[in-house]
Specification:
Order of helices and strands: HHEHEHEEHEHEHEHH
Radius of gyration: 21 Å
Helix content: 25-40%
Strand content: 5-15%
Number of strands: 7
Shape: globular
Structural class: alpha/beta
Number of helices: 9
Length: about 300
């Protein structure tokens, strides 16, 4: 967990609910560099997501329908390499998604949702949210975690604030860690590829942004994709990933006393337009930015038009 003010991946202090978790160093992951160097065991993300969706469907279907389901699924598995990667999701978030986060019902239980490695039911109550492939928790559940009311249920947890630093500085959930780029998430939660740091501790992670509609879900999916790439399916370092329903906006409306400082700065606040443009500009791959720079740079005097 991070310190209340100016938290960053380089200088964060663990929250009481996150004792024992420390930031491993040495791993850089970015969209421009491609798959994580930890990969090699299971690189076909489309295949993994299809297998996970098959497991989900097979567990939830009656025995008499499983054979029919397997025949239809085999066609999708053969074409999985041409489909989207594990980190992608349906455009409107209404489909099953392919992030590997699709809730799976525990067999023989009263509709319990399994963790990402299918080893046990989820520790926290799961809510309905915008993206069906993600597991959501309510602001009240996160408030209970902060107040220590779920200490016997969840031993370690981390709240990951995916908003930009100026939003975080204007008010954030107590102890939240401010990570807003994929490489920051990889560097903080995954071991370095040389094996000089121990394997991560299995903490419960809760992602959010302003509304938990785009930035938080995207980084939640990215961590699960990298986790899958680094482990033998279905094993995971972080089997419990959640998204805070309604984001910081809804949490702040109901639990201002659990925010520090007690404020709320919108992403598009008029006083931070320059910062917003700067952070959004960084999201473009460097190669794309160079191409655009070359295409639209002014012509020097005397240069003939092509």
């Amino acid at each position: 967990m991070a310190s209340p003010e100016g938290a960053s991946p380089e200088g964060a202090s663990p929250h009481p609910g996150n004792r024992g978790t420390r930031p491993p160093a040495g791993l850089t992951f970015s969209p421009e560099l491609g798959p994580s160097p930890l990969g090699g065991l299971c690189r076909n993300m489309g295949h993994l997501s299809c297998v996970e969706r098959w497991c989900t469907g097979a567990l939830a279907q009656p025995p008499g329908l499983q054979h029919q389901h397997q025949r239809g699924q085999s066609k999708r598995l053969r074409g999985a390499s041409e489909g989207p990667g594990e980190g992608s999701a349906s455009p409107q978030g209404t489909g099953e998604g392919s992030s590997g986060l699709s809730p799976a019902l525990a067999p023989g239980t009263d509709g319990e949702i399994l963790t990402g490695d299918f080893s046990r039911p989820c520790s926290l109550p799961v809510e309905d949210g915008l993206h069906r492939d993600l597991r959501y928790v309510s602001p009240a559940t996160v408030a209970s975690l902060l107040r220590g009311q779920l200490a016997g249920v969840v031993e370690e947890y981390v709240v990951v604030d995916c908003r930009y630093p100026y939003e975080y500085a204007g008010g954030h959930i107590k102890g939240a860690l401010n990570l807003y780029r994929e490489e920051q998430v990889a560097r903080w939660f995954l071991p370095d590829p040389l094996g000089t740091t121990p394997s991560p501790r299995s903490s419960t992670l809760i992602f959010h942004c302003e509304f938990s509609s785009e930035r938080g879900p995207r980084l939640c999916r990215s961590l699960r994709r990298m986790d899958r790439d680094a482990n033998r399916y279905p094993e995971l370092w972080y089997p419990e990933l959640y998204v805070l329903r309604g984001g910081y906006k809804e949490f702040y409306q109901h639990f201002q006393d659990l925010c520090e400082p007690q404020g709320y700065i919108h992403m598009r606040h008029k006083d931070f337009r320059a910062e917003l443009r700067n952070y959004q500009r960084r999201k473009q791959p460097w190669s794309l930015r160079r191409i655009r720079k070359e295409l639209f740079k002014p012509l020097s005097p005397g240069t003939p038009l092509q």
